[in-house]
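Let us work through a complete example step by step.
Step 1: write down the sequence.
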Amino acid sequence: MRASLLSRRGCLVAILAAALASACDSPPDDASAEGTRQRLVGTWLRDYEDDGVQIRRVLVLAADGHFRELASAARRTAPGESHAHGGEWLFDGTNLKRRYTLIDGKQPSAPTVPFATFELQFQSRNEFTGLDRVRNRKVRYLRVADGTEP
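Step 2: predict the structure and record it as tokens.
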């Protein structure tokens, strides 16, 4: 009886040791989300054409959770426009979420929806795509040098 009890304890100790060892091998999900968040900090460029308008957006994600977005839009036949926005950002483990608190220096008001959410996928350390499921569009950002202008 005593040998049986000892073998059960030994088996239990082995199972607990294996569980602890496997838990140490894989970081918690929060750690990978935080790693991605830190990876997002910096300056990103989105350059695209929409309905004959060339658009350049420079998105600066600061470590303190704030962002700045500078944009320029130009047609070949008309003078360009510039815009500057700002707000707060976070990464929830899947999505880059931005809440705009300033649109061209003013607080947003209805009917403007001051949020942008993109489900992220990294192609490399310096490139990611975002899927906007609300507007059903895919965007692509490239890391650029701090101070880049649109």
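Step 3: interpret the result. The first strand starts at residue 42 and ends at 50.
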